[in-house]
Amino acid sequence: MRVLVALVAVGLLSVACGAPEVAPQPAAPVPGAPGATGVRLSGGGTLAAPAPKASAVAYNVRLAPPGASATLTAESGAVLATSTLTVGGLLPDRTYGAHLHVNPCGAKPEDAGPHYQHAHSHASADNEVWLDFTTDAHGAATATAKQDWAFIPGRLPRSLVIHAKPTTRTGAEAGTAGPRVACVTLAER
């Protein structure tokens, strides 16, 4: 009790003598919050046949039937990245691979280029953004990937590609997921 009284007295004495107050430190920005530094990418819609400037493309209508849709949002703060993919109208009860790629979608599946990698070194779920998903009975699914790194300004992913197979996670084939089924071009928001 004496210690508490002494501390209160010292505090009151400091205020009375004009000791400078310590200003509270501002909180660190929260990724995705207003005023936070970072990146926000998004894109998607109903998948359609490849066409000039199309932003949501189906390359394989057997695996991405007419009316299917895909939407992606990806946010990156100073040290973290979160990407969320939502799909609908795909084949029911099926697993697809999905990854961020370096180029926008184009008329041909390979136009999206290789996988986006944080460090140009190797294919892994730690170095790339893998969003594999299994659809429900209605062909819908949502997948989220969180990375402990941020997207690099000036070198951002430009598309999401949905693949025909789940991603191979280990070995010499790590990162492969079969033919490209659909593509969504991403834009900075």
From TrEMBL:
Domain annotation Superoxide dismutase copper/zinc binding: ranges: 71-184
SUPFAM superfamilies the record matches: Cu,Zn superoxide dismutase-like
Superkingdom of the organism of origin: Bacteria
Signal peptide: 1-19
Signal recorded as keyword: yes
Classification via InterPro entries: SOD-like_Cu/Zn_dom_sf (IPR036423), SOD_Cu_Zn_dom (IPR001424)
BP GO terms, sorted: superoxide metabolic process
Keywords: Signal
Database matches in Pfam families: Sod_Cu
Keyword Membrane part of the UniProt annotation: no
GO molecular function terms attached to this record: metal ion binding
Protein family according to the UniProt entry: Belongs to the Cu-Zn superoxide dismutase family.
Protein name, per record: Superoxide dismutase, Cu-Zn family
